[in-house]
Amino acid sequence: MDAAFTAEQDEIRRTLRELVTERCGPDEVKAAVRTPPGHDTALWQTLAGQLGLAGLAVPEAYGGGGRTATELALACEETGRALVPSPLLATAVLAAPLLARLGTEDQRRAWLPEIAAGRTTAALAVPGASLATALGLAGDVTGDWAGGGRAGGVQASCDSEGWRLYGQAEQVLDGHSAGLLVVAAHTGGFARSRTLLFLVRADSPGVAAVRQTALDETRPQARVELRDAGAELLGADDARAVTDALTATGDAAAAALAAEAAGAAEAALTRTAGQLRQCERSGRSEWSGRSEWSGWSGRSGRSGQGSGSFQAARNRLADVYVAVQAARSAAYYAAWEAGADGARRAGALALAQTLEALRTASTETVQLHGGAGAGWEDEGPRYFKRAAGDELLFGPVHRLREDAAERAGLFAARPGAAV
């Protein structure tokens, strides 16, 4: 593994950081999530159409950038710093890779250029709260997570007019604003029970997507209802290929989510460090307002004015700093491994580590401010809500670690041991 980033990767980070800093302040983010799409559509057009984020990992033959999971993770890290609400995760990280892996040539040519150009957004719809299981992060993808023939899932049937879907999916990321839905549905009844993926146009008859209230408003979610909706089978009728594609997509998605969480954790830490410096140096006209760690680490408080309490706060944040940097390294490794050949299981562990680091950093942000501003209007608690919301969607942390340990055989019984 080469730990150094290329000049092109550094340029992606620099360009995105400048754009996010300029157009994604706290007020802009709050205004964006209160719009019907749940994100700034003009900003998304800049990110997708001009910077090419939507098609960053789409093959060049279909109008994309042909980049790897590493570039996508770096992009997510920068958008995660400001908790930018956008369809990036739903479209570029989840739906587009499934289209590229499973789709027929006609399906790829019909949809991937539209996605890469930012003209269409897409969303992955799975039944219930099974997103983490569907991606192979916290459970067996080969199970009956798509319904198993029982009520509550999404059922698919085929007649003379083609495939029809019936059921609903909850917690669909950006499902209310997507133009294309990639829907996981159960078919085959008891005899040939299997889960396949289908393409559904959001404006088709029988399709309704309603935005739901979410803990984290910067991560819009929807309930997708399908009532005898027409659908197109994604790729071939091959349940094993679907399982493999979902698992591979889950590895890359976990790396992107980990990088996003690492960026958010670093931003929360930087914000708290800046507030600490401001309190410590209050009354000094030369205070610059910078909030980088290096600007205050190791400095003592003003003599006789609470230096002990400032030192205690610095010690707490030093622990957070170590956790954030370790999580960031884990996210980078997972992104590299997701694009490498061979076994890929670092994504779930990196996601667990970064979500834990984000939860710790955001908790300190609230606690070290005396619990002030614990509502949505304050910038700090938004990071705590992102950590809690992502654990509900993709975790919890202990389940991610437990599943990774089980897959690695860490809990396998020793030969000859009693069971």
From TrEMBL:
Q: Where is the Acyl-CoA dehydrogenase/oxidase C-terminal domain?
A: 301-408
Where along the chain is composition biased (Low complexity)?
A: 290-300
Q: Keywords of this protein's UniProt record, alphabetized?
A: FAD, Flavoprotein, Oxidoreductase
Where are the compositionally biased (Basic and acidic residues) regions?
280-289
Q: Which cofactor does it need?
A: FAD
Region (Disordered) spans which residues?
280-309
Q: Does the keyword Thylakoid apply?
A: no
> Any idea where the Acyl-CoA dehydrogenase/oxidase N-terminal domain is?
6-118
Cleavable signal peptide: none
Gene3D superfamilies attached here? Acyl-CoA dehydrogenase/oxidase, N-terminal domain, Butyryl-CoA Dehydrogenase, subunit A, domain 2, Butyryl-CoA Dehydrogenase, subunit A, domain 3
Q: Which InterPro entries match?
A: Acyl-CoA_Oxase/DH_mid-dom_sf (IPR046373), AcylCo_DH-like_C (IPR036250), AcylCo_DH/oxidase_C (IPR009075), AcylCoA_DH/ox_N (IPR013786), AcylCoA_DH/ox_N_sf (IPR037069), AcylCoA_DH/oxidase_NM_dom_sf (IPR009100)
Provide the family line: Belongs to the acyl-CoA dehydrogenase family.
Q: What name goes with this protein? A: Acyl-CoA dehydrogenase family protein
